Description:
Blueprint (H helix, E strand, L loop, with lengths): L1 H11 L4 H4 L2 E2 L25 E6 L9 E3 L2 E8 L5 E8 L5 E8 L18 E3 L2 E5 L4 E5 L5 E6 H5 L13 E2 L3 E6 L5 E7 L5 E7 L9 E5 L2 E8 L2 E6 L5 E5 L11 E4 L2 E4 L10 H4 L4 E8 L2 E9 L11 E3 L2 E5 L4 E6 L5 E6 L9 E3 L2 E5 L4 E6 L6 E6 L19 H9 L7 E5 L2 E5 L3 E6 L4
Antiparallel strand pairs: 1-3, 2-33, 3-4, 4-5, 5-6, 7-8, 8-9, 9-10, 11-12, 12-13, 13-14, 15-16, 16-17, 17-18, 19-20, 20-21, 21-22, 23-24, 24-25, 25-26, 27-28, 28-29, 29-30, 31-32, 32-33
Amino acid sequence: xxxxxxxxxxxxxxxxxxxxxxxxxxxxxxxxxxxxxxxxxxxxxxxxxxxxxxxxxxxxxxxxxxxxxxxxxxxxxxxxxxxxxxxxxxxxxxxxxxxxxxxxxxxxxxxxxxxxxxxxxxxxxxxxxxxxxxxxxxxxxxxxxxxxxxxxxxxxxxxxxxxxxxxxxxxxxxxxxxxxxxxxxxxxxxxxxxxxxxxxxxxxxxxxxxxxxxxxxxxxxxxxxxxxxxxxxxxxxxxxxxxxxxxxxxxxxxxxxxxxxxxxxxxxxxxxxxxxxxxxxxxxxxxxxxxxxxxxxxxxxxxxxxxxxxxxxxxxxxxxxxxxxxxxxxxxxxxxxxxxxxxxxxxxxxxxxxxxxxxxxxxxxxxxxxxxxxxxxxxxxxxxxxxxxxxxxxxxxxxxxxxxxxxxxxxxxxxxxxxxxxxxxxxxxxxxxxxxxxxxxxxxxxx
Length: 447
């Protein structure tokens, strides 16, 4: 299954497996999992195997992306998120190579309740493509020079979501695909990488969601799959035509449909804080399969489980096992083919970043800086627990200066104000982690 999946995704990005070991091209790597042969550290601490760490301007919730020696991050700054940053660091040394700033075309109050540089950018041989929740899309060359910039807000209207947008773009060799689901006009749009011009746009039913689309292989082609509050949908990459839809889901507002095979991917859902999606959410966590027959496309769950309830971390499949992590740090492990429960165990911290499987290990990047490394396999075993910072020396954490309007929101804001590990990128020998205002590079010391 994995052997058929990875070459097709890499081919769509014009990458060889060897090149992919040194590149992390988008959200969740821009591919299902790191390629075979990747080797990264299993142990670190604030005084061991931290190659470098750097403070960033403003604040960002996106994941880092890597192309050769360049580590790219996005951030927003200012009381109204009026300044957008695209940052480039040297992977080897941590030196800030450049910081490109751009004025937001849709300034809005900076708050811990509103996404702040949440969409992860994508990168290719020509450069970096950064999309912000303001609707701004910025294309830069690897040296930081501007290629083009467009505003989806000016093109389609401003977003309407009291908590902001977070869906990350996905890419083919010549196009970007951006999903905008919110209370206002919702759509999936394709932009040309060479000029930012609209290739096609497909309208969607308005809904409030933060999940990212993914590219899923189907036969010798790929489709864009969106799992977003109340439906799972497949779209043709050339025309934007909706090919199929499945609406017996609920609570699928924050996790991505992670590919695990040809026409198969994981779907996850949560009841939410108010529990209004509880009934459908219990039926919306599992392995999803789309097949094509005489009657057209047939989407359905291959299996589901009513046990896991994820937070922001998407489920993954590694070495034949499917993993979920819920809000309380409980790891649910299933046989990926049958859905049979393998184990259910608690670890010290839940995670915002999606876990990553590498070789014999599963890395769970805890939101408060503790990474739990588990043995990959049907038996629960903690290999290592690695702290990124100490209470005495926490990372930089540039919080909004605006005051929340009610006492209830001010009390709640305190819970969201602590440093949080939002995203990760892995290349051979190296792990890069980012919090809101700091980036860390983990690399084993040379012998």
